[in-house]
């Protein structure tokens, strides 16, 4: 699939990237090369291949999943401009 300069301009706009007018043909060519590579990858037969997280087989370290409050309430509330009864105090915004 070939990308033209109008499509490259639109992609740059959607990505919020400023691209000078004279750089648009080069950008279109680069995007076309990326799409061509992706088409080439889609031709690879991956049936029966398990997904992996690393090229070296290893077990991930695991720890017991324990819920805690972090035990840092006093440290956190020390940064608050106004704290009462263990909570952040904020101005009332609803009448």
From TrEMBL:
Keyword ATP-binding applies: yes
GO MF term (any one): transferase activity
Q: Which InterPro entries match?
A: Asp/Glu-ADT_sf_sub_c (IPR036113), GatC (IPR003837)
| Entry keywords, A to Z | ATP-binding, Ligase, Nucleotide-binding, Protein biosynthesis, Transferase
Any one GO biological process = translation
Q: What is its EC number?
A: 6.3.5.-
Gene3D superfamilies from the UniProt entry: Glu-tRNAGln amidotransferase C subunit, N-terminal domain (1.10.20.60)
Recorded catalytic reaction(s): these are:
L-glutamyl-tRNA(Gln) + L-glutamine + ATP + H2O = L-glutaminyl-tRNA(Gln) + L-glutamate + ADP + phosphate + H(+); L-aspartyl-tRNA(Asn) + L-glutamine + ATP + H2O = L-asparaginyl-tRNA(Asn) + L-glutamate + ADP + phosphate + 2 H(+)
SUPFAM superfamilies the record matches: Glu-tRNAGln amidotransferase C subunit
List the HAMAP family hit by this protein, alphabetically.
GatC (MF_00122)
Whom does it interact with, and what assembly results? Heterotrimer of A, B and C subunits.
Protein purpose: Allows the formation of correctly charged Asn-tRNA(Asn) or Gln-tRNA(Gln) through the transamidation of misacylated Asp-tRNA(Asn) or Glu-tRNA(Gln) in organisms which lack either or both of asparaginyl-tRNA or glutaminyl-tRNA synthetases. The reaction takes place in the presence of glutamine and ATP through an activated phospho-Asp-tRNA(Asn) or phospho-Glu-tRNA(Gln).
> Into which family does the record put it?
Belongs to the GatC family.
The protein's name in its UniProt record: Aspartyl/glutamyl-tRNA(Asn/Gln) amidotransferase subunit C
**Species assigned in the record:** Pontivivens marinum
Q: What is the lineage of its organism?
A: Bacteria, Pseudomonadati, Pseudomonadota, Alphaproteobacteria, Rhodobacterales
Q: Which gene encodes it?
A: gatC
């Amino acid at each position: 699939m070939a990308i033209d300069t109008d499509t490259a301009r639109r992609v740059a706009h959607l990505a919020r990237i400023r691209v000078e007018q004279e750089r648009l043909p080069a950008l279109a060519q680069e995007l076309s090369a990326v799409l061509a590579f992706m088409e080439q990858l889609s031709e690879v037969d991956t049936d029966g291949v398990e997904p992996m997280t690393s090229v070296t087989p290893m077990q991930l370290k695991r720890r017991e999943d324990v819920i805690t409050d972090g035990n840092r309430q006093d440290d956190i509330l020390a940064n608050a401009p106004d704290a009462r009864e263990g909570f952040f105090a904020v101005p009332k915004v609803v009448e």
